[in-house]
Amino acid sequence: MQSFTNISVVVQGPVQNTATRTHHEEGITIKCLNSIRQFLPGATIILSTWQGQNISGLDVDKVLLNDDPGPDDERFLPLNYHRQLVSTRAGLAQVETRYALKLRSDNFLTGNQFVDLQQAFLKGQDEAKLFEQRVVVNANLSRRTSHGRRVIMSPSDFFYYGLTQDLKKIWQQPNFCQQSFATDYQQLRLQANEVNKLEAEQVYCQIWLKHLDPNAPLLANRFDKAKQYLSYWERFLANNLIIADPETMGLGLRRVSERKQKRANEYSHDDWLALYKTYCDEDFTIPFSLQQAWLTTRRLIKLPISGSYFKLRHPRSC
C-alpha cells in the first residue's frame, strides 16, 4: 500500500452547526476525516476548528481550537473571510511535512489522483512563477466567466494541494487590515456597483495575490480589469496552479456544490491544459475530450444568452 507520510492535511472549518451557522451537513466532517485515512494512509491530519466545537471521537492527529474571529463586514470582505484565513493559517503553522493539503471540513476525498497530478506538468516560465511548484485547486466554482463576460482572479477556495511552503504563501497572510493595500481596496469597494460585486473567491485571490505580487491588480467589481489583465491572469494560472475537475482529482463536494453537469462559466481541466500549452509547453498534446467538446458547445449557446439577459436586467451596470 502506498504511504503518504510526506503529506499533512489541514481540515479547516466547523465540525457542527451552531445557532448562527446552520449550513453544515450532519456528519460530513467525520466523512471527511475517514476519507483522508482511506485515500492518504500515513498522512498527518490537523483539524483546525473553533472553541466550543465538539471534537470527541474524531480521528485526527492534532486539534487546534481557535478563537472565532466572527463575521466580516460584507461591504469589503466575504462574511467568513477571516474565519477561513485564521483556521487555515493556524493549521499550516503546525505542518512539518514537505507537502500539505488544505481541505474544508465540509468536503471529502474520493481518491488521491491530485498527488500525481501535481507532478505531471513541469515546464513553465521562470519569470511568471510565484511558487516553487504548482498548486492543485478545484475547478468547481473556479469561474472563467460571469453573466457571459470574462472574469479574472476567481479560483475556488475549497481545496489547495502542493508544497507546504507554497500553501503558506497563499494562506499565511496577515489579517486584512494589516495589508499595505487595505485602504485602497476599501475605497474601491465603496465605489463599486452592488450589482457587479466581487465574488467571494475573487476577494480571497486578489488579497493573497496582491500580497505576493505588487503588480497584481485590485478589483472594484467582478468584471473590473478583466480585459487589461486577462493575459496576466492566464499566465499566472498556467505557471502556478493546476485546475482539476473534482471527479478526476479525487475530491468529493457537499451536496449544495454538486451539479448534474459542469457549469459553463467554470474552468475545466482541459481549459487549464490549453493555458499550459499556450504559455508553458507548445508541444504539449491535449487529449480529445467529448465532455470538453460538449462544454464548448454549451458555452457557445449559453454565454451570449446569459450576457444579453444580464444587460437587459442591469443596463446601467454594463
TrEMBL record:
Any Pfam family matching the protein: WavE
InterPro entries with a match to the protein in the record: WavE (IPR011122)
The organism's place on the tree of life at top rank: Bacteria
Protein name: LPS biosynthesis protein WavE
Organism this protein belongs to: Motilimonas pumila
Lineage: Bacteria, Pseudomonadati, Pseudomonadota, Gammaproteobacteria, Alteromonadales
